[in-house]
Design a protein that fits this description.
disordered N terminus, 3-stranded antiparallel β-sheet, 2 domains, Rossmann fold, disordered C terminus, alpha/beta, binds adenosine-5'-triphosphate, 9 strands
Amino acid sequence: MSVQTTPGDAVVAANNLGLTFPTNDGDVVALSDVNLTINKGEFVSFIGPSGCGKTTFLRTIADLEQPTSGTLTINGQSPEAARRARAYGYVFQAPALYPWRTIAKNIALPLEIMGHGSAEQAERVARTMDLVNLAGFEQKYPWQLSGGMQQRASIARALAFDADLLLMDEPFGALDEIVRDHLNSELLKLWARTQKTICFVTHSIPEAVYLSTRIVVMSPRPGRVIDIIESDLPAERPLDMRETPEFLAIAARVREGLRAGHSYDEDHV
Ligand SMILES: Nc1ncnc2c1ncn2[C@@H]1O[C@H](COP(=O)(O)OP(=O)(O)OP(=O)(O)O)[C@@H](O)[C@H]1O
């Protein structure tokens, strides 16, 4: 399945992308024949059951895994060149903050590694902490913050070097629903303010529909894209939009795609 686009706008372009892991129990096809173009400023969610290759796709974009077939470019470059150019920020499932560093020092760490001067570091830390509504918590340690605040700090860390592309692997999966709702609407505002391109992995249909301009439905064994759903929901999305018929219609289509992927498994396993 592929989506046509103007060449210059493509941030991520996968063509017949495949990735097979050799294991003791035989080959695991984590990605098979993935064709997907993600344009500048899109918010694309990846949804599918465990093992369908969502994380592997993000890790391949980030040059943490190597494709075994097909091609993948980031801003027209190889993943390796994109990594060297710091083309993306990566937010992991768990906040992964260093407990011995303050929140400000955690956010500054990649900037330190990149050799930014201390004034530049301070300016960027202040700006990104403000963006995720954490101003005032600079000198706290991770354990002094709630789970949601820690996850916001890790988003700030990914934003700090101001890459245009943000890769987010189930960042809110471990949070309770109220906090998750709040962070979902915060993330949408942040996306609107920064105009970044976001690739977002989730297991939640409402989360995918609420956040995305496009939803990529994936299925396992082999990991592949089975549907790409365009959202025509307005950019302004209050949380109660999730009860509207338009929202529920998109959610139903995602659910249908997931079900179709599941029956494929039953037929072929
Ligand atoms: N390094 C590895 N070596 C061998 N197999 C791997 C490796 N990494 C991932 N896999 C396998 O590749 C498949 C895709 O894994 P991946 O983590 O991308 O799935 P996922 O959709 O992100 O799952 P989840 O929702 O559980 O995070 C799985 O079958 C997984 O076991």
